[in-house]
């Protein structure tokens, strides 16, 4: 049985890396007593499948992890245990990580990294006024192409990144600058937030960055890998706990 | 006052920002209030190195359990953050609540390595406190130090207000009470608290003592204040079972060294290896009751989610009933059979390898042994009485059970060492490879060579350390000898760093100028090979008008004053001198756990005893087995009869 877990990463813990969070999950699964399946072979390891990496320093309202459970285990969770799992996991997770929902997915489903096609972001650009940000956004959205050279796997790659920018909107001012909303494609190479800021060329610095959604395509329709508890784009409870 | 809002924008600009956020599972909520003495407990190295330090975690818990205390932790910021902190005038802060250092009463350091001394000064400076104790006002932080290095605190005495000798569990509470009382009275007079601290057994207040010099030599170190005792005795907790700490080991969010559950199974060691300061200053042996070990392991694993536990101590296989504890842990049904146990300090014998075989099912990565010297003569000098047969039996046992890689630790620059002794390391390593070839196609042996640095309160405290050039010559001698042996890989420590370690280990108060000078010229993180800079140390010595020969290379005499003579680790100086003479005469000394007492002083002086559950020595240990130590090997080392492992090893 494969369970998919949706969780948030907010507050001080955003300074941990993707790898750090992977290691946190390995410990948390043991603490929660989940009967995780182990790989065979010389050095068995728990079968955890992680979604798209979140850069160190970025927050998220929509992170996902798939866990394969041992179907032969006598403590394999039933429907009631699954419903109680978010609270049970959050209880042993570090402050700032909160499980929002848990669902069962097919073991033959595409991996999260393949399935997710785009992500939405709230991005703070420090030192830039909403008017200047709006001009930069308009310029990018009006450009037919945006060719940049960037690093991928240690090599310089020249790409037209315009197709990755699905949508850009100015949200409004923050204490130190302007918040924009961005919808960015992730396939085949994706566009990083830092790269988007280069393309926007506002001269401002990256401030608070928060992933708000991840999208997959199911029969051509945008669908979240696993729905959250509500359609809310903020998580007041989780934020209070993490700050 | 939290500095988090100033710190957070800087985190985007530094490597590994998770070092600075805290948020570990198990961290205490400190209860700061006007009646509580607040400690900022520091490890003067990076978070990854410092967080697992058990001493700091133990003290943090004990202080936070007290109504009159509150404790948080801090570690040395890496150079990138330090630069930003200085640029933005951000002070040293705690990782628990990001409170500025100056808001604490005490900044106390655990010192486990002498080359961190420049980091100690750097952190005092980052805390916004004058680096010299003499320049501090009543409202400045009290700077304290503890840990193994403090058995000779003289090189850093000028920077410290108080120094703690020995086990910290009890004395930390006494210091907390004294500081809380002084704080409640308004912190009027700094001398008042220094005197109060000097009255606590185990606490040394350097400002209340004068080091007297004549003709460039230390004559004596004597009190200059009636509140200061002539000799400062170390603290020893009699029963480790009364201190099941840390009760909740911290689980960090980011990767650190020794990232696993650690349970201390005993403290102290009486094997009597003459080079080993830890074995001399932590006597006597005090075992934790096996039942408590099982409880701490089982509950710790459940609470932390770790899948690995280390049973820690010196020479861990000496723990009475070690095998049963290990088997119980590996087979604990609550842990689902996925737990591995590591024994960081292994004895060199087949019995120990047998235990390692029990616990490392599947994962046979590598095994480390520490014969320390290449010939039996040399091992008699240092009292590490491992016969070649012991080593070969251990190695054979390991190869036969599936290990392919061995790591052998050796010291060079030992007293009376000849080139024959150095080259003996090559012979041992080659013979290990030959045994490996009987079992595997490509066995490999890594030889790790460290330059010997004599330490205070050991029989070798009088020995003149080998010069940088001599250590380098010996390293190259061995390297050239092993040039054609492709199965043997030689690694060595930088002899230049060993010289600096020597200055800081056995120097006197004059060394303070040198250490401060190295720091003022940017010499932090000196224990990191990429940051160590010999020239900083040589320049500092020259500016101070001091010579490395006088502090490091010179043999010391029986009648000369040692910088640590006013401190006591319980060991009688005449015992240490006799052991030094025995070393030169190549005479070994038994482990006193299972043989009559030879009165080193560690028990008798303090009215305490060994706490050892087993009256007989462990099987396989070549020391204390009753053999004639002067010749070695009279009593054969036998594998445990019940171990099928041993049978296969011999086939």
Key phrases:
heterodimer, A: about 240 residues, alpha+beta, Alpha-Beta Plaits, 2 domains, 9-stranded mixed sheet, two-stranded antiparallel sheet, 11 strands, about 25% helix, B: alpha/beta, Rossmann fold, pyruvate-formate lyase- activating enzyme, 4-stranded parallel sheet
Distance from N terminus to C terminus of chain A (CA atoms, Å) equals 35 Å
**Could you state the CATH homologous superfamily of the largest domain in chain B?**
tm_1862 like domain
The percentage of residues in β strands of chain A lies in: 35-45%
What does the oligomeric state look like here? heterodimer
From the helix content, strand content and strand pairing of chain A, which structural class follows? alpha+beta
Kindly provide the radius of gyration of chain B, computed on alpha-carbon positions and rounded to a whole number of angstroms. Answer: 25 Å
Could you tell me the number of beta strands of chain A? Answer: 11
CATH topology of the largest domain in chain B: pyruvate-formate lyase- activating enzyme
Structural class of chain B: alpha/beta
Helix content of chain A: 25-40%
CATH class (first level) name of the largest domain in chain A: Alpha Beta
User: Helical stretch count of chain B?
Assistant: 21
Shape of chain B: globular
CATH superfamily of the largest domain in chain A: Pseudouridine synthase I, catalytic domain, N-terminal subdomain
Describe the structure.
The complex is a heterodimer of chains A (243) and B (651). Chain A has two domains: 2-113 and 231-242, Pseudouridine synthase I, catalytic domain, N-terminal subdomain (Alpha-Beta Plaits), CATH 3.30.70.580; 116-223, Alpha-Beta Plaits. By secondary structure, chain A is of the alpha+beta class. Chain A is built from six helices and eleven strands. The longest helix of chain A is centred in the N-terminal third of the chain and has 15 residues, at 18-32. Chain A has helices spanning 18-32, 79-92, 112-115, 130-142, 193-200, 236-242, and strands spanning 2-9, 48-50, 59-68, 97-105, 116-126, 147-152, 155-160, 165-173, 177-185, 205-218, 221-223. Chain B is α/β, with parallel strands linked by helices and 651 residues long. Chain B folds into two domains: 4-233, Rossmann fold, CATH 3.40.50; 260-510 and 546-584, tm_1862 like domain (pyruvate-formate lyase- activating enzyme), CATH 3.80.30.20. Chain B contains 21 helices and 19 strands. Chain B has helices at residues 4-11, 47-50, 54-65, 79-87, 117-126, 171-184, 190-198, 277-281, 290-304, 322-330, 350-359, 376-382, 388-400, 419-437, 468-481, 495-506, 511-520, 534-544, 548-553, 573-584, 644-650; strands at 37-43, 69-75, 106-110, 142-146, 162-164, 203-204, 209-214, 217-223, 232-233, 261-264, 266-267, 286-287, 308-312, 340-342, 367-372, 405-412, 444-451, 488-492, 567-568. In chain B, the strands form six sheets. Chain B has a six-stranded mixed sheet with strand order 2-1-3-4-5-6. Chain B has a four-stranded parallel sheet with strand order 15-16-17-18. In chain B, strands 10-13-14 form a three-stranded parallel sheet, with helices on one face. In chain B, strand 3, helix 5 and strand 4 form a beta-alpha-beta unit. Chain B is globular, with a radius of gyration of 25 Å. The termini of chain B are far apart. Mean pLDDT of chain B is 91; it is low at 624-651. Classes of the chains: A alpha+beta (243), B alpha/beta (651). Chain A binds chain B through residues 12-13, 15-17, 19-20, 23-24, 26-31, 38, 42-44, 56-57, 92, 94-96, 206, and chain B through 4, 11-12, 17-18, 20-23, 25, 251, 253-255, 302-307, 336, 338, 362-363.
């Amino acid at each position: 049985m494969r369970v998919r877990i949706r969780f948030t990463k907010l507050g001080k813990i955003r300074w941990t890396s993707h790898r750090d969070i992977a290691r946190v999950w390995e410990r948390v699964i043991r603490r929660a007593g989940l009967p995780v399946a182990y790989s065979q072979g010389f050095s068995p390891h728990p079968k955890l499948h992680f979604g798209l990496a979140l850069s160190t320093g970025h927050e998220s309202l929509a992170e996902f992890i798939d866990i394969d459970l041992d179907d032969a285990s006598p403590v394999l969770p039933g429907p009631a245990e699954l419903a109680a799992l978010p609270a049970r996991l959050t209880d042993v997770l570090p402050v700032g990580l909160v499980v929002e929902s848990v669902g069962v997915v097919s073991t033959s489903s595409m991996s999260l990294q393949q399935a997710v096609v785009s992500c939405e972001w709230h991005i703070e650009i420090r030192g830039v006024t909403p008017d200047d940000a709006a001009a930069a956004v308009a310029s990018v959205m009006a450009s037919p192409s945006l060719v940049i050279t960037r690093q991928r796997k240690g090599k310089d790659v020249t790409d037209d990144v315009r197709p990755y920018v699905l949508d850009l909107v100015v949200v409004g001012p923050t204490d130190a600058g302007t918040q924009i909303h961005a919808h960015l494609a992730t396939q085949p190479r994706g566009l990083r937030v830092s790269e988007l800021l280069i393309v926007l060329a506002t001269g401002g610095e990256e401030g608070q960055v928060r992933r708000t959604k991840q999208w997959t395509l199911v029969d051509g329709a945008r669908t979240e890998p696993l729905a959250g508890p509500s359609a809310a784009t903020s998580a007041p409870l989780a934020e209070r706990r993490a700050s | 006052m939290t500095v988090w809002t100033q710190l957070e924008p800087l985190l985007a600009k530094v490597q590994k920002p998770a070092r600075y956020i805290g948020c570990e599972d198990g961290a205490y909520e400190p209860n700061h209030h006007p009646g509580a003495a607040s400690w900022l407990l520091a490890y003067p190295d990076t978070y990854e190195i410092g967080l697992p330090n058990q001493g700091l975690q133990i003290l943090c818990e004990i202080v936070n359990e007290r109504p009159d205390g509150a404790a948080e932790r801090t570690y040395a910021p890496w150079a990138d953050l330090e630069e930003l902190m200085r640029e933005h005038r951000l002070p040293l802060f705690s990782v628990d609540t990001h409170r500025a250092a100056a808001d604490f009463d005490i900044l106390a350091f655990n010192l486990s390595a002498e080359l961190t001394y420049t980091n100690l000064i750097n952190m005092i400076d980052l805390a916004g406190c004058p680096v010299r104790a003499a320049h501090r006002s009543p409202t400045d932080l009290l700077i304290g130090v503890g840990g193994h290095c403090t058995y000779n605190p003289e090189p850093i005495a000028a920077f410290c207000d108080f120094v703690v000798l020995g086990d910290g569990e009890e004395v930390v509470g006494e210091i907390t009470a004294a500081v809380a009382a002084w704080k409640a009275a308004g912190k009027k007079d700094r001398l008042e608290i220094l005197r109060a601290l000097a009255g606590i057994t185990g606490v040394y207040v350097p400002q209340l003592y004068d080091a007297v010099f004549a003709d460039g030599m230390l004559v004596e170190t004597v009190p200059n204040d009636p509140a200061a005792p002539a000799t400062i005795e170390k603290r020893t907790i009699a029963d480790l079972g009364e201190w099941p700490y840390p009760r909740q080991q911290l689980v960090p969010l980011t990767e650190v060294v020794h990232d696993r559950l650690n349970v201390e199974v005993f403290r102290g060691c009486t094997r009597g290896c003459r080079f080993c300061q830890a074995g001399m200053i932590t006597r006597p042996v005090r075992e934790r009751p096996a039942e408590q070990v099982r409880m701490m392991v089982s509950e710790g694993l459940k609470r932390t989610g770790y899948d690995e536990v280390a049973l820690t101590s010196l020479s861990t296989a000496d723990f009475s009933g070690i095998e049963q504890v290990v088997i119980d842990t590996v087979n604990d049904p609550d842990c689902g059979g996925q737990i591995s146990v590591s024994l960081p300090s292994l004895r060199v014998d087949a019995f120990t390898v047998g235990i390692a075989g029990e616990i490392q099912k599947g994962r046979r990565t590598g095994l480390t042994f520490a014969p320390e010297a290449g010939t039996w003569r040399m091992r008699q000098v240092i009292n590490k009485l491992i016969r070649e047969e012991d080593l070969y039996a251990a190695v054979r046992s390991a190869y036969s059970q599936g290990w392919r890689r061995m790591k052998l630790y050796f010291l060079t620059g030992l007293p009376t060492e000849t080139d024959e002794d150095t080259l003996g390391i090559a012979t041992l390593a080659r013979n290990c490879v030959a045994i490996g070839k009987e079992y595997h196609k490509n066995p490999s042996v890594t030889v790790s060579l460290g330059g010997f640095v004599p330490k205070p309160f050991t029989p070798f405290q009088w020995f003149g350390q080998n010069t940088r050039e001599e250590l380098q010559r010996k390293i190259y001698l061995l390297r050239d000898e092993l040039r054609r042996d492709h199965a043997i890989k030689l690694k060595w420590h930088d002899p230049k760093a060993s010289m600096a370690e020597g200055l800081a280990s056995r120097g006197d108060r004059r060394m303070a100028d040198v250490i401060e000078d190295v720091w003022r010229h940017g010499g932090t993180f000196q224990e990191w090979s990429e940051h160590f800079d010999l020239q900083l140390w040589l320049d500092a010595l020259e500016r101070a008008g001091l010579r490395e020969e006088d502090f490091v290379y010179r043999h010391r005499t029986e009648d000369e004053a040692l910088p640590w003579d006013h401190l006591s680790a319980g060991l009688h100086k005449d015992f240490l001198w006799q052991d030094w003479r025995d070393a030169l005469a190549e005479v070994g000394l038994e482990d006193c756990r299972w043989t009559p007492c030879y009165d080193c002083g560690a028990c008798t002086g303090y009215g305490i005893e060994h706490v050892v559950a087993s009256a007989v020595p462990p099987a396989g240990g070549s020391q204390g087995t009753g053999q004639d130590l002067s010749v070695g090997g009279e009593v054969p080392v036998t594998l445990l009869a019940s171990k099928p492992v041993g049978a296969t090893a011999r086939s």
